[in-house]
Amino acid sequence: MSHVYRSYTPVHTILAEQESHYYINNNKVLSFSFILSLILAVHSTNMKVVCQRIPCASETLQLKLTLGGGQSFRWKEIKDGKWRGVFLNKVWTLWNDKEFLYYEVESGTPNPSKSSKRIKSSTLPGDSQLNDEDLLQSYLRLDVPLQKFYSEWSKSDPLFEKVSNDFLGVRLLNQDVVENIFSFICSSNNNIIRISSMVEKLCLFYGNEIATVDGIKYYSFPKVTALADPSVESKLRSAGFGYRAKFIQQSAEKIVELGEEAWLTNLQKLPYIDAKKELMKLAGIGAKVADCICLMSLNHLEAIPVDTHVFQIAQRYMPHLKKCKTVTDKVYNEIGEYFRSLYGVYAGWAHTILFCADLRKFQDVPTNKEHTIESIKETKKAAAMKRKNAPTKTAVKKAKRK
User: Fold this and answer.
1) Could you tell me which of 129, 70, 66, 71 has the C-alpha nearest to residue 94?
2) Fewer CB atoms inside 10 A, N or C side of the chain?
């Protein structure tokens, strides 16, 4: 259960004050619904964002590793330990301490002239009946007992046990399938910073404005039909997407041709191998990207996306792979099967943790401490002092001469 951390004046308090004015002093009888709608309209202009919290131990959720590790490309660290991003057409701000995950949500008012039918995701519910806490719980998969799986994976794999204590709380995001497909088409031969820039451009060009937070406008991810328009390729090429522009437009066009909503709905019901084959019908999607989508938005947690990093990791487990110069289909499948036999049905999640451990950008993340803003600042300060006190190249050369 979430807890309100900061609130605003209750609507019923204002309503009681307004009822006296309208019904007694003016001797007028206005409908209750009219008065309520008027009050809500006025009140909403001065309404503060409500900060809420969910009980969540810090060792079970590390935001930097989870949100900044290349799963989703719509999150940015706006302050030390504080992250802001978009999912399900809402702007979310997240941070945590030792005991709680805090969140603020802003969704704005949708523009009726731009609204269109939303494709539902069975793996990430987007129904209006679900509250924000339910959506966040589902998105971060907070129902998964991560500590239990860390323990099981450590028993199966000494190397995992060695790195796991320094990379606690890596959660696998439960993403919208449409956003996931087109984000990972952008990932081909690319890095996280450039992919994030491309995804934001897609939202700016073809999404709908959600809200303005701290002076920055946030947009929803585009509908498939918007990306299928023939003019999309040329516009994206001029925006620096390169060959990916063609893949995005062609894949969107193919999804519409296959039935759009019906095809996407069926995709989420297919077994892992069948879903992967279906995804590879789209332009710009090979085995690796298809596995990313299966893992992150189709609930196939056994999928192992094999790229250069993963291939290098696999060589530590399978020494004979060091003789292989390229990742052939046979090698790709062999790597996937090996880790599925090692970690079980959650193999993709376990391997995501190994992937984070292998990324140089996360070497100084304080994951084995409290995941608080204060601890992150302390770690950054210590790293800065270490760099400052490190001997220069000239000093090292002089020392060697001596």
Assistant:
1) 66
2) C
CA nearest 87: which of 173, 216, 172, 171?
173
- DSSP-derived secondary structure letter, 88: T
Cβ-in-10-Å burial (0-12, 13-18, 19+) of 68 comes to buried
CA distance 151 to 168: 11
The model's pTM is: 0.77
- Active site positions, annotated: 288
Taken in order 128, 131, 134, 136, is the CA torsion positive or negative?
Answer: positive
- In whole numbers, what is the pLDDT of the chain averaged over residues? 82
| Per-residue confidence band for 399, with pLDDT thresholds at 50, 70 and 90 | low
pLDDT tens figures, 154-207: 999 999 999 888 899 999 999 999 999 999 999 988 999 999 999 999 999 999
How far is residue 326's CA from residue 312's CA, in Å, rounded to a whole number?
11
Residue with tokens 């910073």: 193
Indicate the helix (H) or strand (E) that contains 87: strand 82-87
Distance of alpha carbon 117 from the chain centroid = 23
